[in-house]
Amino acid sequence: MLPGGGARGAYEVGALSVLLPALEARGERVSIVCGTSVGGINAAFVGAVAARPAAEQAALMVERWRTLRKGDVISPVVGLGTGVGLLRLAGEVLELPGLGAASLLDPSPLARNLERWIDWDRLHGNVRSGLLRAVCVIATSLDRGVPVGFIESERPVPRSDASIEYVPTLLAGEHVRASAAIPMLFPPVHVADPAPGHYVDGATRLNAPISPALALGAERVIVVGYEPWEARAPAPRDGAPRLADVAANMLDGLLLDQVGHDVRRMLAINAFFAESPSTGSSSAARAYRTTRGRPPYRRISYALVAPARRGEIGALAEEVFGERYGGLRGLRSPDFLLLARLLGGGRARSRGELLSFMLFDEVFIERLLELGKRDATRWLAEHPGFWTSESAGEPLEAIALDEFRALRRR
């Protein structure tokens, strides 16, 4: 399960570069891949290279991210097109006929490069041969306002409900671009077939695609996140909040906190509601699922990888930005310099958090890869058997108990 986070996607790949070979050494492999936004891009890439040995998969993913640059994702912001872009933005605000902008940035380079980065024929072949049970990317329908899981699988897709629609398809670049179309920054993406319509980033509704993976039949899950799994503690703040503080708070709630919430819910269900091999499930839990036409909750083994300290990736982004673009060094990339000024000019505490989503810089990417490797290695050192299904010990036991109490209150 790979969530969205812009440039933070390098962290996911760093973690996978450790976890996939460790799985192979156990005689296991990933068979269901679900991703949202940049996680959808990574999921498609994993699906395309799934037939290769794990070490080769890891090397290909890491190399792809190491060679990634801002120009591979978006067109220049500062340059010849700046005036036209500002004019279109003004036309959008003033509702002038013929002048309008559906986004602040132009992601046309990403659209071109996705066709080069992902071998769609190999992805289709890996699913068709049964090597992969399913690859799923999550987008949000603008027309219907619900998350949509575009699923490539040889098996029937799960039943849709009020919380999510499942659509069987042969995955293509348009589905992945739809999953990564960050509202306001990138324009909506039109998907022609199936489920035609306009879509935006799946993270706006479902950034933690745990439930789709479980609906597809996963019995064990790997979840990569960008913040520790425990609930956020209130942070003291000095002075009035700036625009960057407000934006960072919104992004945290929209993207990062979603992942933690879904992980905590999974841990709570494991601990208090799931079927146990020795005792089964409680009659109340079974009745609750039966009345909704669902099978009983089942215990899910998992591996969870995330930074040890909250805000670690944001602090890393701020550190790299200072090293690479502070002072006159900012002239090497006027786009990053402009972005930093808009996000607080060094005075907003939250600037690093926001920068981390768009800082497609080779040094930042390299350090994210190393951070992901470090945290995945830490998980394996703490869990020699790779998987666990228990919430034993802090902080996981407290996480499960807190979420159980929240579920009971509902």
How would you describe what is shown here?
This protein is of the alpha/beta class and 410 residues long. It is built from 15 helices and eight strands. Strands 1, 2, 3, 4, 5 and 6 form a six-stranded mixed beta sheet that branches. The protein has a two-stranded parallel sheet with strand order 7-8. Helix 1 packs antiparallel against helix 3 (54-66), helix 1 packs parallel to helix 14 (362-382) and helix 2 crosses helix 6 (120-128). The protein is globular. The mean pLDDT is 80.
**What is the first-to-last residue Cα distance?**
26 Å
Major beta-sheet overview: 6 strands, mixed
Low-confidence spans: none
Kindly state the mean pLDDT as a whole number? 80
Report the radius of gyration as a whole number of Å. Answer: 21 Å
The oligomeric status of these chains comes to single chain
Shape: globular
- How big a fraction of the residues is strand? 5-15%
Helical fraction equals 40-55%
Strand and helix order: HEHHHHHEEEHEEHEHHEHHHHH
User: Helix/strand/pairing class, anyone?
Assistant: alpha/beta
Task: Please count the helical segments.
Answer: 15
Q: Total number of β-strand segments? A: 8
Summarize the structure.
It is built from 15 helices and 8 strands. With 410 residues, the protein is of the alpha/beta class. The mean pLDDT is 80.
Give the topology:
Blueprint: H1 9-25, E1 32-36, H2 38-48, H3 54-66, H4 82-94, H5 108-117, H6 120-128, E2 134-141, E3 147-152, E4 165-168, H7 173-179, E5 189-191, E6 197-201, H8 210-215, E7 220-224, H9 243-272, H10 283-291, E8 301-305, H11 312-325, H12 334-342, H13 351-358, H14 362-382, H15 396-409
Parallel strand pairs: 1-2, 3-4, 7-8
Antiparallel strand pairs: 2-3, 2-6, 5-6
Helix pairs in contact: 1-3, 1-14, 2-6, 9-15, 11-13, 11-14
